[in-house]
Amino acid sequence: MALERHCDRDDNAINLIAVELREGTLYFKDDLESDVFTKCEDSKDSVLRNQKHQVLMMTSEDTAVFETMTQVEIEGNAPQTKFVIQTYKESTPRGYAVAIMVRNKNETYILSCQGKALKFQKGTFPPCIDSDVSDLIFYQKKVKGHEKMQFESSLYQKCFLACEKESKSGHFKLVLKEVCQEEDGVTLFTVKNFLEKKDIKPL
């Protein structure tokens, strides 16, 4: 006859929950089960430059261009040259998720890539995006061997923010582009903190 054994519940027992460490943040299993992007506390005011060291500036709701600027001109064209990069915690670990916002004429705009066309739509960073992909979320990736960054769309895989020259105007414009490996130079950006004169300490 098999020996029956009854186990009583121990009220002092500790339930173990699976955890995962990503980007210096500890995620609990319950946080990883649903597909969602959650806004973090971290955000950074940034200046974005292309490979020619030109500075990105928003000019309209559907256009941002790269122009050669001095530090004084960068400050003078603010806030259209000041891009806020907001980090998001994602439920599925795929990269460093960010959204990008800029201010212009007392309005705030978030960069969107809906339909593979870039547009700055009015609004602020949403606290939560209930999806595993979004037109507002990009994966910021550090390029090996460079102090450069790439921004890949979470909605359209292998599509990156890129700098492209317009044939008519000759301006270098921010676009979303599906690129081959040999073309990846157009997707490389330098991301630096936005510094005003009061923040620059004399040597």
From TrEMBL:
InterPro entries: IL-1_fam (IPR000975), IL1/FGF (IPR008996). The keyword Secreted applies. It is found in: Secreted. GO terms for cellular component: extracellular space. GO terms for molecular function: cytokine activity. Keywords: Secreted. One of its GO terms (biological process) is inflammatory response. Gene3D superfamilies: 2.80.10.50. It comes from the Eukaryota. Belongs to the IL-1 family. This is Interleukin-18-like. It comes from Monodelphis domestica (Gray short-tailed opossum). The gene is IL18.
